[in-house]
Design goal:
The complex is a heterodimer of chains A (226) and B (399). Chain A has six helices and ten strands. Chain A is of the alpha/beta class and 226 residues long. Chain A has one domain: P-loop containing nucleotide triphosphate hydrolases (Rossmann fold, 3-Layer(aba) Sandwich). In chain A, the strands form two sheets. Chain A has a six-stranded mixed β-sheet with strand order 6-7-8-3-9-10. Classes of the chains: A alpha/beta (226), B alpha+beta (399). Chains A and B meet through helix 2 and helix 3 of A and helix 1, helix 13, helix 14 and helix 16 of B.
Chain lengths: 226, 399
């Protein structure tokens, strides 16, 4: 199995006026292609911080993250942005859809950032929304969609550029059990269809069944559970 | 271009805080008023400048060329030029002019006889008032006629200053030329109207008997006086020894004053746009503050800092362009209404015009539009730059 991401000795510390908290303590983590990694942990365990650093949204104080053998933090801002656009998909707990744009436009934007003209981007976005069973919601704005539909639009948006890896931070954290189940099934289905590598951080134990590797974070350290 | 797509959407979307919508509208209306005011005021300045130019140049040559060489080459050149309407040789000098009752010091211009007789000067360049004969004698202005109680066929005496000077030096009687007034003309050119009289060059040797005539002067009227400077360049290239002066050179001071006046009006009125554009800065800064989460999301998709900056630059610029477009149309509408319907009248008993003159200069419009767009861009830059520096993690956490 080939290595997609290799993180070594990641350290991240948050400093406030009179104290500093070490959120990540020399974390080493290898993510292989096609992995489905579920990272559990209590609030404040450092799982979101780890996710942000692995996905190049945040920088570590020390340590290295290599994506397919290349140190991502050696790149310029423009290069990291392009790297994120082409290789990484994100799903957040609160869908974070852009409220001024329709479902179709929300999904099309990442592919437009990649330089695809509007017409083609919209066509691809339609196909993607079709895959997440939202063919009848193209022209709806986020406020006109239910929580589950919003999260499915967010998934379509995350996957439109065919990323090599999908990072999800509490993807079901804001959903009821019925919608949570729909999202879980969808993620599993997309993983199988698209050969996607998935990393999910959550404290929802129901998501455990999605993973082939289960990790736990506690007090800035990471442990293998299975 | 996704930056324009997103910026345009943000520009069109109703803002999440109605207060920002109000400021946005104020900025658009303010810019529109500023642009419209600039167009109208500058067109009024241009209108007055055109009128002043027309008055200054009425009956006055567009170019004067002086040469010590044979002037035939120049005459041939002018004859073959497609730009030249009329040209003639002339002499000029100060004279004492009048009859037994009134005398006045005035400038006498002696015009090449064939031109003077052919009435071209009077018909083409000055307005005729009373004409009986064209036998080469004197033409005076209506102003002089009234001032000195003269009329056509009256005899007048002319003595040149040169002759007076000579008589003092040689203790002789000055040469006095007696001639008849044969034409009276009008002119809106105050200088020509009050300070000049015209006669045929046949009188030259009589009035200026001792003059050294090595230097010859030729007056040139062009079909379009705006090309006077280009034609001067052409003449100077062809006749490097000759001295060429245009009407611009003769009125350089007043023309410069008008240009400076117009330029400062442009700068000062641009302040209206600057103040209005400042509202773009305010509304965009608030908009960026509210959209921090969206910015972080866009960054997470792979929009670079430059891309975020461009999105908000477009949003601000589109406000500016909207205001500029409305102002442009409003300004042009006011201009056309004044030009064709003369809504703003002037008291014709006090002014020589019936209505406020307006004229649009070709370069004013792009200058106004560019200034407005530049100010909108400058106002958008700071909030756009600020948006590009948004911290992704901090902004995503905020919910």
């Amino acid at each position: 199995m080939s290595v997609l991401i290799n993180a070594t000795q990641l350290v991240k510390e948050f400093k406030s006026a009179n104290k500093s908290i070490k959120v990540l303590k020399n974390i080493d983590l290898t993510i292989n292609k096609n992995d489905r990694i579920i990272i559990f942990g209590a609030s404040g365990a450092g799982k979101s911080t780890l996710l942000n650093i692995l996905s190049s949204l945040d920088f570590p104080d020390s340590g290295k993250v290599e994506f397919e053998g290349i140190d991502i933090f050696s790149k310029t801002d423009d290069e990291i942005s392009a790297f994120r656009n082409q290789n990484i998909g994100f799903i957040f707990q609160f869908h974070h859809l852009l409220p001024e744009f329709t479902a179709l436009e929300n999904v099309a934007i990442p592919i437009m950032i990649n330089g695809i003209p509007y017409k083609n981007a919209v066509k691809t976005a339609e196909e993607m929304l079709h895959k997440v069973n939202l063919s009848d919601r193209f022209s709806h704005k986020p406020a006109e969609l239910s929580g589950g539909e919003q999260q499915r639009v967010a998934i379509a948006r995350a996957l439109i550029n065919s990323p090599k890896i999908l990072f999800a931070d509490e993807p079901t954290g804001n959903l009821d059990s019925e919608n949570s189940k729909i999202i879980q099934d969808l993620l599993l289905d997309l993983h199988n269809k698209l050969d996607l590598t998935i990393v999910i951080v959550t404290h929802n134990s129901e998501l455990e069944k999605l993973g082939n590797r289960i990790l736990k974070m506690e007090d800035g350290n990471i442990f293998k559970i299975s | 271009m996704f930056e324009f797509f997103i910026g345009n959407k943000y520009h069109k979307a109703k803002k999440r805080l109605s207060f920002i919508n109000v400021i946005n509208k104020i900025s658009v209306v303010g810019i529109a008023i500023g642009v419209a005011t600039l167009i109208v005021v500058l067109s009024v300045f241009n209108g007055f400048r055109e009128i002043s130019t027309a008055l200054m140049t009425e009956g006055e040559p567009h170019l004067i060329i002086q040469t010590t060489n044979d002037s035939e080459d120049i005459s041939n050149f002018l004859k073959s030029s497609e730009f030249v309407d009329l040209f003639y040789k002339f002499e000029e000098g100060k004279v004492l002019f009048g009859n037994k009752e009134h005398f006045e010091i005035i400038n006498l211009i002696l015009i090449e006889d064939s031109i003077f007789r052919s009435k071209q000067l009077i018909y083409n360049k000055l307005s005729e008032y009373d004409t009986i004969f064209y036998d080469g004698n004197l033409a005076i202005s209506f102003y002089s006629a009234i001032e000195m109680n003269l009329q056509v066929r009256d005899s007048v005496q002319i003595t040149s200053f040169e002759s007076l000077e000579n008589s003092v030096l040689t203790f002789s009687i000055p040469e006095i030329t007696t001639t008849q007034i044969r034409n009276i003309y009008f002119s809106r050119n105050a200088s020509l109207y009050k300070n000049y009289i015209f006669a045929s060059s046949n009188l030259a040797s009589e009035i200026f008997p001792n003059r050294n005539r090595n230097t010859q002067s030729i007056a040139i009227f062009l079909l379009n006086l705006e090309i006077a400077n280009e034609f001067k360049t052409q003449l100077s290239a062809n006749f490097p020894d000759a001295i060429v002066k245009t009407w611009n050179d003769n009125h350089a001071q007043i023309l410069n004053v008008m240009k400076i006046e117009s330029f400062f009006a442009y700068l000062l009125l641009s302040l209206i746009i600057a103040v209005a554009a400042f509202n773009i800065l305010t509304s965009l800064t608030m908009s960026v503050q509210i959209k921090k989460k969206d910015i972080a999301i866009l960054r997470s998709f792979g929009v670079s800092r430059k891309g975020i900056r461009n999105i908000f630059l477009f949003e601000g610029l589109l406000n500016g362009i909207k205001g500029t477009s409305w102002g442009f149309l409003l300004g042009l509408a006011i201009y056309f209404v004044q030009k064709y319907f003369q809504v703003y009248k002037l008291d014709s008993s006090k002014y020589i015009l019936d209505a406020m003159p307006v004229s649009i200069s070709f370069w004013d419009l792009p200058a106004i539009v560019l200034m407005s767009v530049f100010l909108s861009f400058a106002s958008s830059y700071y909030p756009a730059k600020k948006a590009s520096l948004t911290n992704i993690i901090e902004s995503i956490k905020w919910e």
